[in-house]
Amino acid sequence: MMGYTESEFWNGIALKALNEGGITIYKNDPVYGHVPRISESGVFRRSIGEPKGQIADWRFTMPWDSRSVHAVEYIDRYEIHVDKYDPAKHPVLHLMSDAPKYGSILLPLFALFPLLIFRKKL
Asked: Model-level pTM?
């Protein structure tokens, strides 16, 4: 880890992902050495994501940006990419742009929801 705190390390990784669009960091990385646990970073918070056999999903939300950094944790690595829309700030745009497989299912259901709630009884 080269003398960085967990927070400094993961802030740097989030910025690197933003610049490069995505990166993979191994927990025992040849470049970074022993990578600190993301859960102790104070930078990433627990999140959800498409099931891909991961241990957990983590998200770094930037107050100044509509994007977010999404880290998918596996046994041996973190696969990190940038979502165009932070799901906490723009859930519909996130579903349409970053998770279209789920958006195509969920968004029509959300559109029908008011009809089911406010329908008139005969």
From this structure: 0.76
